[in-house]
Amino acid sequence: REQGERKMSATQTQTHGPHSLAFRVMRLCKPSFHVDPPLRIDPFDLLAGEDFSDDPSSASLFRRHVSSADAVDSDLSYRNRFLLNHPTDPIGLSGLLLLPQSFGAIYLGETFCSYISVNNSSTSEVRDVTIKAEIQTERQRILLLDTSKSPVESIRTGGRYDFIVEHDVKELGAHTLVCSALYNDADGERKYLPQFFKFVVANPLSVRTKVRVVKETTFLEACIENHTKANLFMDQVDFEPAKQWSAVRLQNEDSTEDPPTSGLSGLIPKPPVIIRSGGGIHNYLYKLNPSADVSGQTKFQGSNILGKFQITWRTNLGEPGRLQTQQILGAPVSRKEINMRVVEVPAVIHLNRPFPAYLNLTNQTDRQLGPFEVSLSQDESQMEKPVGINGLQTLMLPRIEAFGSNDFQLNLIASKLGVQKISGITALDTREKKTYELVPEMEIFVESD
């Protein structure tokens, strides 16, 4: 691994006269690919002058020597430099790596790696050197190195003590790398040297979300935008739902994210999503449903927390980054105390012939409810309902325990042909005197005998 070293700007606090020691801090980061200009170099240019091919006698002599070698082009003119002999030629990648030319940007979620050197520039040796390095932010102070328990015995004249520190960047804004040394100079005086190196942490990407509710299904759309100057290769964009939700990512069946058929298809199981530098975006869509695993000891009534994103990525040379978003909020979840649903109705329903409807009544509270009277509500503004209860108009159900349920059957009868609606099934809690309008309208098809 090749690494580039670049100095950071520093401020030094002088205490008790000039110091024998000084800190030098350099950032360690991977190099970048070197891109050649369109006009490429011929290897022969390294052996001969640039005007070699302009001399007819020299050029003809060289051609005779290489005429039998198939690997060497005997045409020494510059016109063949523009020919594309390989598909990779237009890319301009020479295979060389370029060390960073500046300190560069530091982004949230990355690992800041720094090479620190303590130099003795004085004419005398210093002894019993205690070195500390820490990161200061607006909210916390993080110790990276402390040699208090095992001080450096001595640093000779012109010598140095080197070490490397790493820090996972988890905060935005101004950061200060504080390097300090406590040492004895040549006169035996104990001196303290602090130096401060400042840098700013930027946001590598932004996550914009939209929440839409369709009936009882919640859809979460996330748009991730790249704010860096390098492409981001997304290893993982996972939505971790809150306990009351289950989430499924929706993808286009014709998605082009599948790996192309090639010799590498067996080595690369799934290529990462690439979000282009300088404002590139990618959208993710998730379908959220209320979790079926609702236990009696947990209440989610009124909670509007949907969950959070775990995002990991890599840059061009594999440097990792990781972010976790804050909790994504949606509309407050309002769970009914009582829920009734139709489990099954016959596939064929005949006119004026009774048919059974199988239903389920669920207690969604942490207390006991009931007993219940299940009936079909009557609306005075309408004519007789096309689907009614056959026989006793009220069905008695026993009490239901907390988070429990009860299956029951209603005998119904249809009085009109065609598409009809079953509506108005209600349950009365006889103890609390509360009426629940439960089953949404459900369509059935009524045939004649």
UniProtKB/TrEMBL annotation:
The segment(s) forming the Trafficking protein particle complex subunit 13 middle domain are: 205-327
Membrane spanning stretches: none
**Could you tell me which residue ranges the Trafficking protein particle complex subunit 13 C-terminal domain spans?**
346-446
**Coiled-coil stretches:** none
Q: Trafficking protein particle complex subunit 13 N-terminal domain location, by residue?
A: 19-201
Q: Which GO terms describe its cellular component?
A: TRAPPIII protein complex
Top-rank taxon: Eukaryota
InterPro entries attached to this UniProt entry:
TRAPPC13, TRAPPC13_C, TRAPPC13_M, TRAPPC13_N
A Pfam family recorded for this sequence = TRAPPC13_C
Cleaved signal peptide residues: none
Please report which protein family the annotation says this sequence is part of: Belongs to the TRAPPC13 family.
* Protein name as catalogued: Trafficking protein particle complex subunit 13
Which species is listed as the source? Arabidopsis suecica (Swedish thale-cress)
Tell me the lineage of the source organism: Eukaryota, Viridiplantae, Streptophyta, Embryophyta, Tracheophyta
